[in-house]
Inverse folding.
């Protein structure tokens, strides 16, 4: 009754080095071709600090350069590669943006708290990405350690939930990330 | 405070005819190229009948030809097109497979109850698609009317939750759809 | 393998007339005694209208007298009786407040989208009930028909999501119902 | 815009010493009276070990004496006291059953993955408690440390997901806890 397949489905860590190598070979023009034809699979992660009761005390926001050249606050976001498990992509992007000492606590459930549909046309869904149509699975991820942002991200700031939804901080977020943060805090029961 | 963007995000039905036309032009070889490079975005829908209290009384299963030539029972499944909203894709595939009189009740929340990650290698996640790597957002969808399967699907059967998880019916499902049905029934609190 | 118990768990509609009769006999002073000793089990329902794509177009708000004598807008809310299933309580309170022609579509999943913890002290959780400590399971419930409010509720208004979170409407809600509405809309991906 | 109330709602740890003292004074006969009149509020916690990717590797099951005198495997379960937050009750029962070194990771979201409705009549919902009608909020809780069961619980065993749903282990669970474990594993995408 307990099949081998089920065992694997729970325990197997899927992305192999050969898979990563393969996706690494994808030339920029090949990726661009795919981007014009099919939606990309993305993951968004809203990093949070929680207290011993699981309540969100802080939200982590990255200060980074956006494709349009402006600087803005954003959550962790990135593409799922061919052959890569969603959990592996989530962990990879969190470690890239928060550094190796962040110790993210990936949630045990695979279902995202919401999905963000990014379109080149900002009027379609309110989530905007000038490069592509992407369907992003959004997760709330408690982080234990001290995030030390990598070179790609310019800064990492931990703000309170109240600050995260304040007009000032909202104005610094583009592409719909301000709304994503509010949806994440609402999911945590923590919307002021 | 209530922005135009927010209004659109809630109310706008996104897929335009020109978008559908554009994706209709995608040649089979172009789709194949994309399939070898990036994961595809899919939706899976487990159609259910519910009583007045919202409890699942029946699960709808399609009898259909699989890509490998065998006949099997399956849930509704299909690709999200470039430029298409996830909700539009869900409705499109439900109407294609259940017919125009099924009257599916799409859930108000955009978050899927689980995600199914299909890989060409059946050992990676337990979900298997020999054609591609697909990340599928899985929804439980109550259906009101009488589903009349389209020509593509061979048959549609409504079985009880107990029958849906029986060894006989499970053997007729491939690619992991048997597990998807059990995950859907568990989400509905309805796992025997 | 498919047990009788599992079958019942999915299909049985539990509250019997004798149970309702029994709880009907509960004298006000007995209920008051219980209220001083243990938290009450409640259900909250945010009634919504959805379009064919499942997107929320309107939120239903009741204009009613609160225990403190003021008039305020509120969502559907009520106690779960001894011996009563949560689904039965949800349907009972929806029919009481929206009338018999509202045709609520109870969600197939038993998990609430959030829980609201009401305390006599308004500072504990932000949800406030001067009469009692209540733990309320909150559901988003699409409604098909025309709600005709019963005599207990004074009025029923359908407002857009944007109006529902506007400062004007928020001010008319007390006890935390304004926050509950925003959490419900966030769950539906529909927070401006 | 960011109100004091909102701040408290996210950060305040609610249960005060005076509240605990008050509930401690509740005499057994008073609790029995309440149990005959209104449903009790409970929490159930399924403790799990997860790997760095968030995948469930083990389920923690308590070997304990049930009210009917038999020995059975069970998940963590207990009452929410008057004046107590659900998160506080969850942490209190986890520490009582797993010991102070278990370091449970309470989920940031307040919504349970399912609800379990326990009735004295085992046929109503499949969840059974001979003492009372209880509505239990069920959570999946990753545990970091080494659980050392308290004196009340006789033993604590960590089993794999496959073992947890095996007929042998299922037979050792009563009251519906075997089904609760399967619903929890399904929520984690980890049902064989």
């Amino acid at each position: 009754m307990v099949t081998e397949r089920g065992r694997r489905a729970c325990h197997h860590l899927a992305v192999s080095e050969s898979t990563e190598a393969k996706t690494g070979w994808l030339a920029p023009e090949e990726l661009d071709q795919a981007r014009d034809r099919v939606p990309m699979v993305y993951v968004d992660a809203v990093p949070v600090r929680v207290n011993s009761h699981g309540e969100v005390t802080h939200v982590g926001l990255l200060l980074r350069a956006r494709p349009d050249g402006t600087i803005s606050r954003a959550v962790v976001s990135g593409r799922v590669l061919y052959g890569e498990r969603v959990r592996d992509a989530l962990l990879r992007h969190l470690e890239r943006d928060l550094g190796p000492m962040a110790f993210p606590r990936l949630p045990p459930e695979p279902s995202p708290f919401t999905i963000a549909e990014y379109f080149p046309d900002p009027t379609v869904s309110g989530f905007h990405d000038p490069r592509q149509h992407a369907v992003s699975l959004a997760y709330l991820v408690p982080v234990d350690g001290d995030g030390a942002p990598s070179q790609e991200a310019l800064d990492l700031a931990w703000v309170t939930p109240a600050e995260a939804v304040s007009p000032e901080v909202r104005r610094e977020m583009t592409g719909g990330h301000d709304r994503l943060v509010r949806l994440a805090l609402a999911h945590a029961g923590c919307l002021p």
